Amino acid sequence: MSAHLPLWEVFLRSRRGLEHKHIGSLHAADPEQAMQYARDVYTRRMEGCSIWIVRAADIHASQETDGASFFDPAEDKIYRHASFYDVPEDLKL
Amino acid sequence: MPEGNWITRAPTLRRKAVLLAKVQDEAGHGLYLYSATETLGISRDELKDQLLSGKAKYASIFNYPTLSWADVGAIGWLVDGAAIVNQISLCRTSYGPYARAMVKICKEESFHMRQGYEVMTVLANGSDEQKAMAQDALERWWWPTLMMFGPHDADSAHSGRSMKWKIKRQSNDELRQKFVDQTVAQAEYLGLEIPDPKLKWDPKREHYDFGEIDWDEFRSVLAGAGPCNQERMDARRKASENGNWIREAMMAHAAKERDRSSAQTPEG
Lengths: 93, 268
Description:
The complex is a heterodimer.
Chain A: E1 7-13, E2 20-27, H1 31-42, E3 50-55, H2 67-71
Chain B: H1 4-7, H2 13-38, H3 44-53, H4 69-90, H5 96-124, H6 128-147, H7 159-164, H8 172-190, E1 200-202, E2 207-209, H9 215-225, H10 229-264
Helix pairs in contact in B: 2-5, 4-5, 4-6, 4-8
């Protein structure tokens, strides 16, 4: 009988000044071990200077099926884009 | 596994450090691909069980033995070289998690190929004995490497569907041709001879012609009758069994830590 190790998502900051980005996932017993695995799996060649670990079960994701009600309403609000407005071409607006 | 055989016997500390780094990369590549596969809705435990029970296939090239140090060079040069040809094509596969894993893998594979070619270069320019070792390794690994690309397009069971769904972007025969075309000059530079009397440049096709693969050998290794199939399966099962206690201990430790920290949480 093998022990079931939970899944963790790994976020990596490639260098100072940039944001953390999702890089992959791994299985580990606890955050400490997940952190060490993340270092071994995702930063063997100086790919990062900071790691975030999040238990995959703690992530709440929007669902593909919710797409229409969730994101489509933004489509009819074109006045939120700068290109919606007519302004004199010569002026630096 | 094939290269594991030579970690403790690498000829210098530099070669040993390089081989260790390569093997660590390969373990990482396995993890990337398992993660990608898990996105299809199967658990890591199920995948591992399938590997250990023999239900899941693995690359048949691992069923060949590494008889001399030159085999480590030949594996890096030829096997990883062939893998790169495949993987570069798969960076454009239609399944996102697979494609993203391949991009990460490709970034690391070229080191693997180069270290192997460097090993071959040193041996090919060494004593007569060393050169013979390099030639022998090339002769044993050449055909199994060509088999890595799979059956001819016409005989490939899943190719049609995979191409239609754009999981595969180039056919087995196209990729195999690409590998042969790029490898011939590399063998010539080493002064080594590829073991194929039919290998010849065709100026009309602008490709190398090459001989037919022994498909009986291909099928027999795939069916489990290769030189090391049993040994590789036994090694995996043993590694898994021997690692069980530590996974269980880690889970027990994590559970204890959680209990301890919740007991210490001050009241609200």
